Amino acid sequence: MTQTFDIAVIGATGTVGETLVQILEELDFPVGTLHLLASSESAGASVPFRGKNVRVREVDEFDFSKVQLAFFAAGPAVTLSFAPRATAAGCSLIDLSGALPAEQAPQVVPEANAHVLDGLRKPFQVGSPSPCATHLAVVLAPLRGLLGIQRVSVTASLAVSAQGREAVSELARQTAELLNVRPLEPKFFDRQMAFNLLAQVGTPDAQGHTALEKRLVHELRVLLDLPLLKISATCVQAPVFFGDSLSVSLQLAGPVDLGAVNRVLESAPGIELVEEGDYPTAVGDAVGQDVVYVGRVRAGIDDPAELNLWLTSDNVRKGAALNAVQLAQLLIKDLA
Amino acid sequence: MTQTFDIAVIGATGTVGETLVQILEELDFPVGTLHLLASSESAGASVPFRGKNVRVREVDEFDFSKVQLAFFAAGPAVTLSFAPRATAAGCSLIDLSGALPAEQAPQVVPEANAHVLDGLRKPFQVGSPSPCATHLAVVLAPLRGLLGIQRVSVTASLAVSAQGREAVSELARQTAELLNVRPLEPKFFDRQMAFNLLAQVGTPDAQGHTALEKRLVHELRVLLDLPLLKISATCVQAPVFFGDSLSVSLQLAGPVDLGAVNRVLESAPGIELVEEGDYPTAVGDAVGQDVVYVGRVRAGIDDPAELNLWLTSDNVRKGAALNAVQLAQLLIKDLA
After folding, report:
1. Which residue of A39, A41, B23, B65 has the lowest C-beta tally within 10 Å?
2. Residue among B155, B220, B297 with most chain A CBs within 10 A, to mutate
């Protein structure tokens, strides 16, 4: 008989939480009892799991000693409120909110720095990084040894689903209003999102950087174990429902061997390299898939020490929910 | 009495050609007779100018000795076919297609390198660069003296209107099909364009670069008079009707003085700098305007020698038609 684990998912009604439950089922994760939790507004809803509807209950009232592992898939404030209670009850946790400091819950992407898990003590606390950092780490970690990466410049065009269901509905609503030539009144976004690009996601700090951009830079340095890596990050809101697209330019210590880069990308886990001349897109390729798609692999125009890439991946699935479940798969051997 | 000039516009029925005619009227350009020309398929249509509909005629049959200046706003093949006939007839020309080599028709953006015009002989031949290079040159030229620009990394998200009317209709059609949950059959684009980003515009060469990206790099070096400038360029097709958005990261020789950068951008011609914390977008700001909007001016995270900018501008107007008319305004003093 296989050993099972009792699991809690906090934020179970959100886009990431619901996908996480679905992936636990798809990957046949050894779940004993599944406890779905949310804030009081969302409690009472139900989410399907293994052919049954599981009722979502209030996280406030939950006894964390009932589970061995909790996924925190709600916002940073929820993690900060309930993580201490979980660990005090002996429950290990995987946080997707970015709320916990790296010393407390190191950020891990299995394809990049799984070895960090070996140094942890129970109850485990691990961070699942932001989708953009996760995608970049999956692709850059296997190339790290081959390339002397000096600098990364990334423009990430993010799907509205990163901001939850309300943002998805708002893009659909705005688009329909415009196509029907009705007046547009932006609600969720501060202006027209349909057929437009918004240059920032969230409010920038006094230096002009958004929290998402700072999180991306900080997490990518940790995941690649390159604490001094120079990273220029711009996160943009695109009129796309699902799937992030990243335009990446790397500066290297010397000329790039494109043949070797392609061979590494072809064989590395978690990556799908598209054929030369083709390119991957969010819709049609990445959405619903468990890999980061890579295309447009090319050196610079007149600069052999530059490597350019285009990445696209499912922000909710590969960028968040799947990474968290992959972390859980690595942790459970020591959870018993 | 003001002197007038007889003018031809080739490609008068295209998005750029039609806007160009409109701008000639708006700016009260001293047009005597306006000849609108196009290929045989588009001949017969008419375009409004000064309250009248001007009939579009076949370029094949046109006698270029009737005009002092011709705008070539059709594709490169049309320029290559008819530019020699125009100059042989003593007609000066402004080419928007990028077809003519720089030695024959130097690329000029008035805000960046107007002085190049002084060295030309009649009949004048001048190139109006691609919209992306034009936008970048308007913003980077006045900063060139202040910053030791070592490298430019740009991801340009282009509006579908850059590919003409058919692309605009196709984005609208695809979007409507999707919102009505009808099956999508891509026609103009090779896949779903609605709610998606396409990683390349046109077919890449053997090295992976598209013609548009190579044109951007080449033209920007010429416009800034920095022939060895390292430029990483990625041109992406966005589901946006009008207005290009550029995410730009510059590496500088030393720490950036943001106060000085902001002062230069505030006073330079052709630029609208948005307030700190705000950001400009294609829809709502740039479209229909005669300036390049600049926002998100910030140094790097932990790198004071990095400068990041977000530019957005009307690709058809400021990026093409208006620049060509501005060039004509500078040339006419010597055309008489």
Report:
1. A41
2. B155
